[in-house]
Amino acid sequence: MLGRISDLKPVYLILGTDKPKIARALQRLRDRIGEESTEHVSARESSGEETVSACNSLGLFGGEGRLVIVDDVDAWKADDVKQIVSYLAAPSPATVLALAGAAVKADSALAKAVAKAGEVLTFDVSKQRLPAWVAEQFRRLDATVEPDACRALVEAVGDDLEELASEIDKLAMWAGGEPVTVAAVELLAVGRAETPIFAVTDAWGRRDVGGVLASVESLLDRSHRPRSGELIRVVASLVSHVGRVRRIARLADDGIRPREAAGRLKMHPFAAEKAARQAGNFSREELAHAIVRLADLDAAAKGGSRLPAELELELALVDITRRPEHD
């Protein structure tokens, strides 16, 4: 009766930031043991004592194997952990206990007890590896993706792996076997509320006047915010982005490479490298002018001009993006 769990460990501690991978590991256990024999609870609601009781219960199917999954084990108190550690000294042969959490120290009592009785699994993804992680998820779905599209998706969505996984599923399905491109990401990806408006800033960095104006118009049209509120956010994002590019340029003048600058400025390395490339398209005087021009735009957009705010935005974008006439 217990054949389906005979080669499984009595306990697994599954940790890390890669929530989609953790979810897949838990699903494999569920598939192995069966949904009807699985109990899934949260440590925020189920104490250590209650978890032990669930592990020792025979369940509805007598001696069949069962799976007890507990999420958020970081929330357990010392007394809860003590109950689990005591249970793991002689775990039920009919039960697999799967404990999941974001972070449990390797030298903690819980981690040591699990390592002795079962297995500790850690699935982490560093911020530097996010584009590679995105590419890996597309491969899992048998989808083809451009490297730049992976980086663009990270910049649009941020570092929440569950949000990224959701967008990856959507893009892979939409592509229908065709390569997922940067254009597809810009069209379909749902970014966080405070995500840098990369379609606009990329066009500015390329000195593409038509592109920057079209990107802003698209952003204003697609936003869930009132148009005036989104315009203010666009201006704030531009001020922030151009400021970062200018700081990267200054550090580059001192011989500091983008990856080192990323650490100093608390930027993602990919964002720092992109900012360095954009800085190469502008003189230091142009970047200084852009900062002043955007400050004037910010004041105008907040009621400091008789002209419509959208017209002020368009004029400023043309001014800071176009190349000097003598180029």
Structural features:
Rossmann fold, about 10% strand, about 325 residues, 3 domains, alpha/beta, five-stranded parallel beta sheet, 15 helices, Zinc Finger, Delta Prime, domain 3
Task: Explain the overall architecture.
With 327 residues, the protein is of the alpha/beta class. It has helices spanning 19-33, 48-56, 78-88, 109-117, 130-140, 147-157, 161-175, 182-188, 198-206, 209-222, 227-253, 258-265, 269-279, 284-304, 309-321; strands spanning 11-15, 38-42, 66-71, 95-101, 119-122. Strands 2-3-4-1-5 form a 5-stranded parallel beta sheet, with helices on both faces. Helix 3 (78-88) packs parallel to helix 4 (109-117) and helix 11 crosses helix 12. It is elongated. The N and C termini lie far apart (80 Å). The relative contact order is 0.09. The model has no long low-confidence stretch (mean pLDDT 87).
User: How many β-strand runs?
Assistant: 5
Helix content: 55-70%
- Please work out how many helical segments DSSP would assign: 15
Q: How many domain modules? A: 3
* Poorly predicted segments: none
CATH topology of the largest domain: Zinc Finger, Delta Prime, domain 3
H and E string: EHEHEHEHEHHHHHHHHHHH
Mean pLDDT: 87
How are the SSEs placed, and which strands pair?
Elements: E1 11-15, H1 19-33, E2 38-42, H2 48-56, E3 66-71, H3 78-88, E4 95-101, H4 109-117, E5 119-122, H5 130-140, H6 147-157, H7 161-175, H8 182-188, H9 198-206, H10 209-222, H11 227-253, H12 258-265, H13 269-279, H14 284-304, H15 309-321
Helix pairs in contact: 2-3, 3-4, 5-6, 6-8, 9-10, 9-13, 10-11, 11-12, 11-13, 11-14, 12-13, 14-15
